[in-house]
């Protein structure tokens, strides 16, 4: 098992608003009036300073996570095999394709090896570019080959520095989003500081570098920043077109780099749908965003050789359904309150039915079953019946797919982030409810130009919520629900939590709303509070967490996993290059990266045939006859099988969630140990394979010969007979 041990060596303000409000100096026809020369100069100076601060914080974050990675593993000092083992589970699988492209005789041969790959899944040839989101590895490997940097920078450092560099993009995008929402770069500074001080809950890039989300989330943050700017009022046509292009590029890159992109953008589409129905966003801009999502995903589909899972995604079905339903219901936003509520209910039902019908039709035509395990998991997770499905239970028993732990909130509260977030969320939710009710009831019966003028007049007396703030509110609520239900998705929420909380703390609208409710509102008081409280918060964060960050950066550890290193070295030295290995998904990803040997299965689980194959391979940990296990392994061309004591005698999970328990239940067998079993489960006729094989009984030695063992791993060579 990979561990990290202590290294055995010595420790070597602003005074005014940065930007004018969106409504300042605007003619009735929408044209912007020029401001005073002094104001323009101050605006340029403020934007320059804010931009420098944003870039500086982004680069500092990049250096910070890179230093943590080096200090934690002593990455610069360990051997190449140890560096590769540190890319755990699926991270190692993705990095192996970068390594494969680097080591190929030419770029063309490297691409051919990915398109016609017969080493990732034995006795099958698969298209890696179709099955997996690895275009980033392809692009990076080509870039490394053509740039004159080979003599100065090892391939692995080029790879990890690129990922750490993307963290700079991530932080800058969060900073800019908060700045756009609040109108002051002080808000962006606070968002970036919260992101850094809450690093445990906002990112895991320093120890899961090649993970797809570490590539994708920076582009998602850029997309949100672009959407925030797009939703501002009074944009010039050229500005709007450029912003739409930025949204499209960011959406495309996000979709290209992560297989779960469609589910994240579906939540985003739901946020747009809700706000559009409540007349809180401009319909034309929402339509463009729907189209961008569809076109970005379809472009990725083409690049992934028409991956059927993309075509059958709920996102495409939903967006198409919304556009069709809107065409059918042309007068959706006219009429009184009850009339509009009735139309909205009908609209929602129509969109839901169309989405299900279109999605069912596409999956029927394409015979698509690649994502069925996700829906089985969701069905079981939310209590729609117990399941014995092996794949669903494999997800349910992993902590990453469980509910968000309560200690997350205590950590977020220690930096004041969660307290501020809750405060801002409450105020803006109240404002959103008031605005939505007003839109549905009061303004729905007033025509075009009269409605605009009446809204302008009413803003002096009523609660308002700008479109960009409304989108940010619904976005954080929906992704918050996702994070609460699935811990692995918390990084989508916590990063935006930093943006949302900092925006609220620096927002004129939020403080104006609160002070008016308390009958304490004056313009001067609002400005003082708007700047003083964020500055006090920044000082608190700095004084409390700066010493801890310095201690963290001074703590030196080193990578230590001698058993896995010994296994990988033995495989490279004692087995032919064409040998086929079976074992756990997580370990085999490392086997492919470190040794280049052929695998029977791997951790990229988004394929039905692979899931069925993995379940069969995992019978090595079930109660099965040696002849049956041998037959299964030989059917996949297996030459060697690796057994892990950490799985065979697992104690990490409780009874019912150990891998051997999941296999027993799926096979209809009673589980080991004290505890209840379902009444229809029966004792197995055979002992557990991974335990019994170590006794060297004749029924086992006929098929399997032990060729390697250490404290963690046992490798058996399969006999050649069938």
UniProtKB/TrEMBL annotation:
InterPro entries: Dpy-19/Dpy-19-like, Dpy19L3. Its main location: membrane. Residues 1-10 have a biased composition (Basic residues). The keyword Transmembrane helix applies. The chain crosses the membrane at residues 41-66, 156-174, 217-235, 242-260, 296-324, 344-362, 416-437. Keywords: Glycosyltransferase, Membrane, Transferase, Transmembrane, Transmembrane helix. It is a multi-pass membrane protein. Residues 1-32 are annotated as: Disordered. It is found in: Membrane. One of its GO terms (molecular function) is mannosyltransferase activity. GO terms for cellular component: nuclear inner membrane. Belongs to the dpy-19 family. This is D19L3 mannosyltransferase. It comes from Agelaius phoeniceus (Red-winged blackbird).
């Amino acid at each position: 098992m990979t561990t990290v041990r202590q290294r055995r060596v010595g420790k070597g303000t602003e005074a005014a608003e940065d930007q004018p409000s969106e409504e300042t100096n605007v003619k009735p026809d929408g044209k912007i009036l020029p401001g005073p020369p002094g104001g323009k100069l101050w605006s340029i100076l403020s934007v320059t300073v804010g931009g420098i601060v944003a870039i500086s914080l982004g680069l500092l974050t990049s250096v910070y996570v890179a230093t943590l990675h080096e200090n934690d593993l002593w990455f610069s000092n360990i051997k190449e095999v140890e560096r590769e083992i540190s890319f755990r589970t699926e991270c190692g699988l993705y990095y192996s394709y970068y390594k494969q492209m680097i080591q190929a005789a030419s770029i063309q041969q490297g691409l051919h090896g990915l398109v016609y790959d017969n080493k990732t899944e034995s006795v099958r040839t698969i298209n890696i570019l179709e099955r997996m989101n690895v275009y980033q590895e392809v692009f990076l490997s080509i870039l490394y080959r053509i740039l004159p940097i080979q003599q100065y920078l090892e391939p692995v450092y080029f790879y990890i520095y690129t990922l750490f560099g993307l963290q700079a993009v991530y932080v800058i995008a969060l900073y800019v989003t908060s700045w756009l929402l609040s109108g002051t770069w002080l808000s962006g500074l606070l968002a970036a500081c919260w992101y850094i001080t809450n690093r445990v809950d906002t990112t895991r890039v320093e120890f899961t570098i090649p993970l797809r989300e570490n590539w994708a989330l920076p582009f998602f943050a850029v997309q949100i920043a672009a959407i925030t700017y797009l939703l501002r009022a009074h944009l010039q046509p050229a500005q709007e077109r450029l912003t739409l292009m930025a949204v499209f590029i960011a959406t495309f890159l996000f979709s290209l780099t992560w297989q779960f992109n469609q589910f994240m953008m579906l939540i985003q589409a739901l946020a747009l749908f809700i706000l559009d129905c409540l007349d809180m966003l401009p319909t034309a801009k929402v339509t463009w965003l729907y189209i961008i999502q569809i076109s970005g995903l379809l472009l990725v589909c083409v690049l992934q050789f028409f991956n059927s899972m993309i075509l059958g995604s709920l996102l495409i079905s939903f967006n198409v359904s919304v556009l069709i339903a809107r065409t059918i219901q042309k007068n959706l936003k006219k009429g009184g309150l009850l009339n509009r509520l009735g139309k909205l209910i009908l609209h929602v039902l129509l969109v839901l039915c169309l989405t299900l019908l279109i999605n069912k039709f596409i999956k029927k035509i394409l015979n698509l079953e690649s994502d069925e395990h996700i829906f089985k998991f969701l069905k079981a997770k939310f209590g729609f019946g117990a399941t014995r499905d092996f794949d669903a239970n494999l997800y349910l028993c992993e902590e990453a797919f469980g509910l968000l732990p309560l200690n997350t909130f205590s950590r977020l509260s220690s930096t004041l982030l969660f307290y501020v977030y809750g405060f801002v969320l409450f105020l803006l939710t109240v404002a959103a409810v008031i605005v939505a009710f007003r839109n549905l009831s009061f303004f729905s019966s007033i025509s075009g130009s009269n409605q605009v003028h009446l809204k302008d007049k009413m803003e002096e007396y009523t609660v308002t919520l700008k479109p960009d703030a409304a989108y940010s509110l619904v976005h954080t609520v929906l992704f918050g629900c996702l994070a609460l239900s699935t811990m692995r998705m918390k990084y989508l929420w916590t990063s935006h939590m930093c943006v949302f909380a900092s925006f609220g703390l620096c927002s004129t609208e939020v403080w104006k709303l609160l002070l008016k409710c308390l009958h304490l509102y004056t313009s001067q008081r609002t400005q003082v509070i708007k700047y003083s409280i964020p500055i006090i918060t920044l000082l608190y964060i700095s004084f409390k967490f700066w010493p801890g960050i310095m201690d963290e950066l001074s703590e030196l550890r080193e990578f230590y996993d001698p058993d896995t290193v010994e296994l990988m070295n033995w495989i490279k030295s004692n087995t032919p290059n064409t040998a086929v290995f079976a074992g756990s998904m997580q370990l085999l990803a490392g086997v492919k990266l470190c040794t280049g040997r052929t695998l029977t299965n791997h951790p990229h689980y988004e394929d039905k045939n692979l899931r069925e194959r993995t379940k069969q391979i995992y019978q090595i940990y079930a109660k099965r006859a040696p002849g049956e296990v041998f037959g299964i392994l030989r059917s996949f061309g297996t030459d060697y099988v690796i057994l892990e004591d950490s799985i065979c005698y697992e104690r990490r999970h409780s009874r019912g969630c150990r891998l051997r328990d999941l296999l027993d239940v799926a096979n209809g067998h009673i589980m080991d140990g004290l505890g209840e079993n379902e009444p229809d489960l029966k004792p197995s006729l055979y002992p557990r394979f991974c335990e019994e094989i170590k006794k060297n009984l004749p029924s086992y030695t006929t098929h399997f010969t032990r060729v390697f063992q250490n404290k963690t791993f046992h490798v058996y060579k399969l006999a050649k007979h069938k």
